[in-house]
Amino acid sequence: MGEVTPEFTGSEIFRSDRYFRVWQYAVGHRRLLLRSSRDSPPDTRIEIYFANVDLMLLRPRYDSLVIRRAEDEECRKTGLDYGVEVKPGRLFLLGGDLRSFVVSAPPQWHEDEGTMDDPSWFGPIRGTH
After folding, report:
1. Residue 54 neighbours by CB under 8 Å, 6+ apart
2. Does the global pTM surpass 0.90?
3. Is the alpha carbon torsion for 54, 108, 39, 65 positive or negative?
4. Is there a contact between 19 and 63 (Cβ–Cβ < 8 Å)?
5. CA distance 124 to 128
6. Res 40: pLDDT
């Protein structure tokens, strides 16, 4: 499992050239799951899990995915633009800029040989089997 370690703001924490899509969001526990299937080589599935989501601006799919920890100024701008407090270290940019992001606990990821319909490695998330 990959997990974010304390790093500098602005640092890239995940990169993949694989296709990802938004798989599930559970309102009750504010959990978000992105998945890349094992339909084409390599024969693995990757899940990216965000917990305690406060705010998100997502695309339904990503042809490739880069997750970057936001700079302090980006946190400030996002907070002003959306009327919420965005503490440093809780804003993660998907694709490198403020057009797609998640305000949450640090993301975690896991790669395995599961199929798209197998249960999530991160435990039961309503609607993901």
Report:
1. 30, 84, 86, 90, 103, 104
2. no
3. positive
4. yes
5. 7
6. 65
